């Protein structure tokens, strides 16, 4: 062993003797293991929900289909019902999913005023469900649209795909803007609280 290696080894060993484990190390490791188990459980539950949803929609589509000229066809309103069910299921699944992963981000942004962060999350949830509800109502059809038939055709299938893609695009864009704007709002709220505190201190001094 060279002199440099010996000196490094001595320095590291000397530092190790003065190092004490964190008192909450075991609690943090246990919490990390529990979080990993919880994520795995949620993943399995999500996959089960997706599989059951696909099976349910397939059964619903087959149940609403009829035979015509030796082919299995579906009335136009059946695909509309299935599309609406898909949109509602997406709203009920995406909302909690985004909220679960957004809490830590909001807590970090609004760490100076956690109550404001909680209120912000609640308000964004309300906006989220209002957007989803309005989109479902706006895109619902009560009679065949131009290019549609009495049974499902390619034009209606494409419109249904666009219907799902449209809400994903809207929520994605709004969610991206929310991620960008949230730190700015958190900073503004923190500055307002500091200004209020300074004004109160100046009032007491006067």
Description:
This protein has a two-stranded antiparallel sheet. The protein contains five helices and two strands; from the N terminus they run ααββααα. It is extended and about 90 Å long. With 206 residues, it is mainly α. The model has no long low-confidence stretch (mean pLDDT 75). Helix content is 81%, strand content 3%. The protein starts with a helix and ends with a helix. The protein has two domains: 23-64; 76-206, no CATH class. The longest helix is centred in the C-terminal third of the chain and has 52 residues, at 154-205.
What is the straight-line distance between the termini? Answer: 71 Å
Widest beta sheet: strand line-up = 1-2
- Count of individual beta strands: 2
Count of helical stretches: 5
Radius of gyration: 28 Å
Please give the share of residues in helix: over 70%
The portion of residues forming beta strands comes to under 5%
Q: What's the overall geometry?
A: extended
What is the count of distinct domains? 2
User: How would you sum up the major sheet?
Assistant: 2 strands, antiparallel
Runs in which pLDDT lies below 50 for 5 or more consecutive residues are: none
Structural class: mainly alpha
Series of H and E elements = HHEEHHH
Mean pLDDT: 75
